[in-house]
Amino acid sequence: MKTETRSDRENGEVQIIKNKEKGMQVELKRVDDAFHFEATGLSGVSVHIDGAADIGGHNAGARPMELLLMGLGGCTAIDVILILKKQRQRVDDLQISVSGERVKIEDTQMTPFRKINVHFKFKGNITEAKAEKAIELSMEKYCSATAQLTPSAEITHTYEVDFAE
Description:
Layout: E1 2-3, H1 6-10, E2 15-16, E3 26-30, E4 37-41, E5 46-49, H2 64-86, E6 90-102, E7 113-125, H3 128-142, H4 144-149, E8 154-163
Parallel strand pairs: 7-8
Antiparallel strand pairs: 1-2, 3-4, 4-5, 6-7
Helix pairs in contact: 2-3
């Protein structure tokens, strides 16, 4: 299977995906006559997607742009937990809040994210320095969702640590 991206074509490069580990695929199946879809990935887990009620949706699933933020939050959460475990930090709880500012592109209906903030709330026996380092490693080295969104959105992070022995 051959996959090209605009930036690859502009650089004269074409990426060839040779196995499923480097590629990804999801399937969407329409659930009703409105905008409700059930999406399933290679993991076999289903996610429901729907449009807002004001356009005829039934609020039966997440909005597509919410899923982008959820994906970013989930990607960095997994990285951060793995890194902190390797640093022998005890994470009792981690809550992440991801917020995004959208800007309308002139002469279109598109309103992509231009600014995204990921806020981490840690609870456990974690030093602030280790929390900060884990977040930085995730955002700068490991999280593919961050890499995907960074060219079009400024991604920042904030955090707080509720230290518990």
